[in-house]
């Protein structure tokens, strides 16, 4: 194999590795989104209350600048930890509460 052919094969192998890695990352992200959606549906079916209060999402549900709202997540998580009486979860950028009173108090505080 000539030097050029060897470099070409190595380059192709590197490209394949990069594409494989990117494909796996995309698959994990899709799996996570699907699992979170299923979990939200299950919790709602069990009577949990979902809140849509989140400044990181626009009216059509698009996360506009993820890292810009990290502080909001930490503030709300702290408030919920100190004030919620029942179980709670954060899925797909929305807080869900087992106790509807907790959801009401959250909405009143953070809307």
What does this structure look like?
It is elongated and about 65 Å long. With 111 residues, the protein is mainly alpha-helical. Strands 1-3-2 form a three-stranded antiparallel β-sheet. 61% of the residues lie in helices and 9% in strands. The protein starts with a helix and ends with a helix. The chain contains three helices and three strands, in the order αβαββα. The model has no long low-confidence stretch (mean pLDDT 82). Strand 2 (88-91) and strand 3 (94-97) form a beta hairpin. The protein folds into two domains: 1-43; 47-111, no CATH class.
Question: What distinguishing features does this structure have?
Answer:
single chain; 111 residues; mainly alpha; 2 domains; 3 strands; 9% strand
What summary fits the major beta sheet? 3 strands, antiparallel
Residues in β-strands, percent: 5-15%
Q: Rg to the nearest angstrom?
A: 21 Å
Low-confidence stretches: none
Can you lay out the helices and strands and say which pair or pack?
Layout: H1 3-45, E1 49-50, H2 70-83, E2 88-91, E3 94-97, H3 100-110
Antiparallel strand pairs: 1-3, 2-3
Short structural summary:
It is built from three helices and three strands, in the order H-E-H-E-E-H.
